[in-house]
Amino acid sequence: MISRDVTIKNSVGLHARPATFFIQKANSYKSSIWVEREDRRVNAKSLLGVLSLGIVKGMTITLIADGSDEKEALEGLAVLIDQGFTE
């Protein structure tokens, strides 16, 4: 299991369209992936879970992955966030 802190840079945060891109990317990996904010942890492959965190621009979240492709998963999701959810 590994984790990585990332800061949300896009203007609307992790809502609606960006969250959909994030979930699609998370689902492309075999590993279990979670998003953690303060004391709450949700499944990164669940749109409702991710939206429930209310992640906005400037917030730092922790990505956690556990599985065979955990390093690739965290790197791929971190790049997506750093690029403002554009591929």
Overall description:
This protein has helices spanning about 15-25, 45-50, 70-80, and strands at about 1-5, 30-35, 40-45, 60-65. It has about 90 residues and is α+β, with helices and mostly antiparallel strands. The chain has a single domain (about 1-80), classed as HPr-like (Histidine-containing Protein, Chain: A, 2-Layer Sandwich), CATH 3.30.1340. It has a four-stranded antiparallel sheet with strand order 1-4-2-3, with helices on one face. The model has no long low-confidence stretch (mean pLDDT about 95).
Briefly summarize what is shown.
The protein contains 3 helices and 4 strands.
Features:
Histidine-containing Protein, Chain: A; 4 strands; 36% helix; 26% strand
In angstroms, what is the radius of gyration? 11 Å
Domain count: 1
Q: In percent, how much strand structure appears in the residues? A: 25-35%
Q: What is the name of the CATH class?
A: Alpha Beta
Q: Give the fraction of residues assigned to helices.
A: 25-40%
Structural class: alpha+beta
Report the uncertain regions.
Answer: none
Strand order of the largest sheet: 1-4-2-3
How many beta-strand segments?
4
